[in-house]
Amino acid sequence: MPLNAAVPLSWYLILSAILFALGVAGFIFRRNIITVFMSIELMLNAVNLSFVTFSYQFKQVDGHIYSFFVMVVAAAEAAVGLAIILTVFKNRATLMIDEVNSMKY
Amino acid sequence: MTALIFFIFAGIAVFCGINLVVQTHPIASALSLVGVMGSLAVLYLQLGGEFIAMAQVIVYAGAIMVLFVFVIMLLNAGAEATTFQVSRFVKYLGAILLAAFLGLISLMIQSTLPRTEGVLFGAWQGTTLDVGRKLFTAYLLPFEVTSVLILIAIVGAIVLARKEI
Amino acid sequence: MALWLIPILPFLGFLANGLFGKRMPKALINLIAVGSVALSFLWVVKTLLALQPIETKYIEHYYTWIQSGTLNIGADFAVDRLTAIMLMVVTGVGLLIHIYAVGYMEHEGGYYRFFAYLNLFMFFMLVLVLAENYLLLFVGWEGVGLCSYLLVGFYLTEQFATTAGNKAFIVNRIGDFGFSLAIFLILRQFGTLDFAKVFAGAQGMPVEAGVGILTTVTLLLLVGATGKSAQIPLYVWLPDAMAGPTPVSALIHAATMVTAGVYMIARSATLFTRAPITMDTVAVIGLATAFFAATVGMTQMDIKKVYAYSTVSQLGYMFLGVGVGAFSAGIFHLMTHAFFKGLLFLGAGAVIHGLHGEQDMRQMGGLWKYMKITGATLFCASLAISGFPFTSGFFSKDAILVAAYARAPWMYWIGVLTAGMTAFYVFRAWFMAFTGEYRGHAHPHESPLVMTGPLMILALLSLGGGFINVPHFLEPMFAEKPENQSLAWLSAGVGLLGIFLAWLFYYAKRGLADSFTKSIGGLYTLVYNKYFVDEAYNAAVVEPLVEGSRTVLWRGIDAGLIDGTVNGIGRRSRGVGSILRLIQSGNIRSYAAWVVLGSIALLIVVGFAGGLR
Amino acid sequence: MILENFFVLTLIKVAVVAFVLLTTLAYLQWIERKVIAHVQLRVGPYRVGPHGLLQPLADVVKLITKEGLIPSHVNRLFYLLAPFVAVALALTSIAVIPFGPQITIGPVTTWMQLTDLRIGVLFVLAVSSIGVYGVALGGWASNNKYSLLGGLRSSAQMISYELPLALAVAAPLLLTNTLDFRDIVNYQSGYWLGFIPRWNLFPEILGFIVFLIAGFAETNRVPFDLPEAENELVAGFHTEYSSMNFAAFFMAEYANMVTVTAVATLLFLGGWTPPFPEPYSDFIPIILFALAGLVALYHGLNPVRRMDKFTLPATALVFLGIAAIFGLSLFVPVAKAILMALFWFCGKILVLLFVFIWVRATLPRFRYDQLMRFAWTGLFPLSMFNLLVTSLVVALTSK
Fold it and tell me: CB-CB: which of C587, C596, C607 is closest to B87?
């Protein structure tokens, strides 16, 4: 297709799907808590992209506002989550989620 | 032009996303995530979300990820131990599941999305004015609630980060 | 006109005292408790004056309480002449008793609790009286039952008090069960519970010869009434209920609550008049109760027990009245009874108070020297209850008896006999307490003005209350029965005879009573032990129930069936869990993978099982 | 015509701006050294060229020719990436800064600005917010505890001061009700009572002060230069850097200074709008430069030092020439527009830069905890208060 043609909306959505899948992959395959956390952020970003895309489709800014809220929530989540990670590291001296398993037994 | 920009930044985003997953060092992952966010911001601009694009950069890349990098540096988290031991289920099925998931999603998107006009840069602009208008009229209550949420998060973070926990 | 203000005021008092009373000084508690009731009394007066004359029913609708399908139950209050009388009685007598209680409860513990309960009772009682539909009335009905339970068991450190409370509550449950059944039947029959609609519907129905729907409904209502108003066979709780503080006995178990059954029957007069069978049942039950309780009352030694049984018997009179169709007479007697029986109890309370808790009449005597006001007022009350001419009891009781005569003469004769016995036992009590020489060990003393004041007011009312021509006032609602003076005089004469006998036995010739009782020893013991009714109930109802529930319910159903099932389920689930446990690896990443699996399944379902467009 | 083409035009602009900017950065350092030296009663750079005017050139040569050494055990990629990121981000934000009004040269009509972004303010905020990565990465990558501490400090400090900065920026935005720099400047054009410029400075004086202080912190300048506190952590995050990498960090710092001052000028000082009404303001540059030239000439005619005979008259000539150019430009509208705008804009920026340098020469350094406490308990509430008051006023006055 010519490089200055319009881009179908579905491509943005597929891109967001790919990013989401990558986030899931990171969540599943990584052991470092921080990386896992970042994978979650990646998923959130992917969702935001689809929000914005839909908001383009419907020519409404609501999608933007949703993703704005997602950002706010992500910020709060990051603050608390990183604090938790710090605490865990302080007590366990490890960042590997598999080694933080005392609730398991 | 739109397509070109889309391809460039979509490529960057995907590359950085993959990089995030495969890199063993948290800092590398964090920076690739920042890359993803930056390119996503550009795509937002393309989709006419000027405010959300800037917010993406300011909030995500500028605050959240800085926080991540900060923590990584603070804990001086080294590279992940390469002993790749996950539960059998994940080891054997994870990749397949993901592939299936991705395929299904793409299929659904392709089959459901109405064949509307594609995205042309500047065809529609969700101006900051509109966002502000809506945010402070229709979405006022959620907005206030998020403020409460943030307050809670602040308090929680401080409590967690206190010395004697 | 803000009828809602009437019950709400005591309720606010209840909230204030119940929530913060613990930290409040007694003066403040009194102010709140008495003040709230006084305010609502004033408001009642104002309302009634404003509504004067209450020709038609005045209804206030506040909001739709229950709205489901065609069923539409509103929270609405109404005032008609019947309600007006009840309101005056409840708030007026209630106010006096509140004032009295301030003095009586002076030295009791749980002061604020007592007044909180008392206010709560006023609230529920007023709701009951003001209610414009059966459900709201039922709310008040249950509420007063609750308060009666709370107040009977007020001395919760005493075993007998708590058991008495339980007894009152449980026995009432039986009645309430019948009442609720009646409500359901009414709902099914008329599709509504509003008095106006129900009675309008009933107007169109003929007087039932056999047992029809109306008869069933009214009989069930009667069951409820017998429970609340302590009629045979459900009267057993009332004598025990005397375990509560005396103001409670006066307010709840003499003046107001126990008369709720009578009120309810009078309220449902439209239904009852169309069910002659029920009417006869009511009359017979009332008569039997009256006679029976009177006999028991003659033998009791505990002063409060005497008055309790007299209450039962007077309630029987009221039932007789409404049973023979003289609703106005019944209500009339309800009012006068509220006066003199409240007075009797308060007087008894004053005596007990003066004797530091002594209730046995054998430990009294010669109290006239110590407490003249109490004695005088009690004397007035006794005159009134024994139908001494031109006292309030004279008019009301005789209105009933006349109506009974019009219905069936034998009823009248038994009623007269009962009247005689009534006169006998009240004066027996009075003579034993106030004449002769003091046989007790405590140091009797007159009660403070705060207690004697209400006594005197009530004394005036019980003497002059008869001139309030209630039957005439209620004429637009219930057809008035013809007066028949000669019959009235007869019963009054019998009353005087009873008084004379009492004077003879317990004042003039004291030995006579004992020798007499000895001569009829067997009968006396039988009566003295209340015909062993409690024991009979125990053997017939309670024991089998307990035994049955122990063997069948507990061992059989509970242990065997239910536990078995539960354990079986537990075993099963443990078996299943042992398999499912493999998923719960505690490895967060495998969880995530499972989530992905689930979402894939969801996608397949939504996407290809026609979830799309 | 080729000039109308967007790309060509932009390229030309970029070339001009880049050249001017980089030169300015180089000479900014010279100015700083000079000013500080005179504040401290020294002469500062004096040897290279007259009054050390060629010093920056020498510095550049030195830095280029030095060996750019990479310590062992550093994370090579990030070590090299960090200065690049820093300087790139620092220079990026210049792109949305307008230097003057719309002008028309022959057929071409354009703004004196690289890109006209409707959300320029947000853009600047965004770029400055990710500017921290350069410092943090540099500090972390160069495997050195001092550098790491410097990096950590700088990231914490920048996050902390981002808030007051943003809030202080938000206040004038509320007044002007736009995110476009040019609209903001246009809003500030005009005068109260005919002679007081309608700058946001006067209603937003509090916000301006907060902005400046936060700006000091954002650019890691004294008294907030904790990341490179010599006496605690040798040179902070750029301890390990040498030659061009070091120069890149240096440039980044100065570029950030320029950006902050420019933004402050645009937001609070009315951008290129002259402080005096139209006819008078035109003569100010002429008078200024002419005076300077005359003073130089006077000193040149009766010199105190040997070389003054030659240097000062030359300078005088330059100044007078500039004055003449300004004078002539009064008769060429286009030239006048450009020159006036540039004069006032650069003048204000230079004043602010002088304040930066002045503060550096004057104030001691904060302690780290003081720095943080100051940010969270002093500056943040202050800016919040300012924002609230402003919004209240706006809400009450706007209909």
Answer: C587
Model pLDDT for residues C535-574, shown as the tens digit of each residue: 777 777 777 777 777 777 777 777 777 777 888 888 888 8
| Chains A and B are in contact, defined as 3 or more C-beta pairs closer than 8 angstroms | yes
Domain coordinates in residue numbering, chain D: 69-273+332-397
Q: Is pLDDT larger for residue C520 or for residue C323?
A: C323
Residue C68 has phi, psi (to 5 degrees) of: -145, 115
User: Does the structural domain A9-98 have CATH classification 1.10.287.3510?
Assistant: yes
pLDDT tens digits, residue range D130-179? Answer: 888 888 888 788 777 788 887 788 778 888 888 888 888 888 888 888 88
Q: What number is the average pLDDT over the span D259-283?
A: 83
Which chain D residue's Cα is nearest to B79? D75
Nearest-Cα distance to chain B for D184, in Å, is: 15
* A88 CB within 8 Å of a chain B CB: no
Confidence of residue B91 (pLDDT cuts 50, 70, 90): low
Reported pTM = 0.58
For chain D, the residue count is 399
* Topology adopted by domain B2-126: Four Helix Bundle (Hemerythrin (Met), subunit A) (1.20.120)
B99 touches chain C (CB under 8 A): no
CA dist., res. B33 & res. B18, Å (int): 10
Tell me the two tokens of residue D289. Answer: 């430069």
ipTM of predicted complex:
0.72
Give the chains touching D; criterion: ≥3 Cβ pairs < 8 Å: B
Token pair listed for B63: 């605050």
The DSSP secondary structure of C342-388, one letter per residue, reads: HHHHHHHHHHHHHTTS--BGGG---GGGT-HHHHHHHHHHHHHHTT-
Binary contact (B157, A83; C-beta < 8 A): yes
Q: Which of A6, A13, A22 sits opposite B2 (nearest CB)?
A: A6
Amino acid identity for residue C562 in this structure: I
Residue A4 to chain C, least CA–CA distance (Å): 32
Give residue C236's pLDDT band: very low, low, confident or very high (50, 70, 90). confident
Phi and psi dihedrals of C10, rounded to 5?
-60, -35
- Return the minimum-mean-pLDDT range out of A100-104, B16-20, C285-289, D93-97: A100-104
The answer to whether the Cβ–Cβ distance between C587 and A98 falls below 8 Å is: yes
Quick one: pLDDT at residue C128? 92
Q: In a mutagenesis test of the A interface, which of B75, B90, B148 is the best target, namely the one with the most A β-carbons within 10 Å? A: B75
**How many degrees, rounded to 5, is the angle at CA B101 between CA B98 and CA B106?**
125
Mean pLDDT lowest among C283-297, C373-387, D93-107: D93-107
pLDDT band at C70 (very low <50, low <70, confident <90, very high): confident
**Dihedral sign computed on CA atoms, order C108, C112, C113, C116:** positive
Whether residue A104 lies within 8 A of chain B, CB to CB, comes out as no
Closest to B98 in 3D by CA, of D375, A28, A73, C130: A28
State the average pLDDT for chain D.
Answer: 82
CB proximity under 8 Å: A 5-44 to C: 24, 27-29
**Gap between the Cα atoms of B102 and B100, Å rounded:** 5
Q: Do chains C and A touch (3 or more CB pairs under 8 A)?
A: yes
Q: Interface partners of A (3+ CB pairs, < 8 Å)?
A: B, C
Spell out the long-range contacts of C16-25 with Cβ–Cβ below 8 A and sequence spacing 24 or more.
Answer: C17/C112, C17/C115, C17/C116, C17/C119, C18/C112, C18/C113, C18/C116, C18/C120, C21/C111, C21/C112, C21/C113, C21/C115, C21/C116, C22/C112, C24/C112
What Å distances lie between residue C404 and C244, C264, C283, D55, CA to CA? Answer: 34, 20, 9, 130
Position C120 confidence tier, pLDDT thresholds 50, 70, 90: very high
Domain residue extents for chain B: 2-126, 127-165
Cα(D345)–Cα(B155) distance, integer angstroms: 44
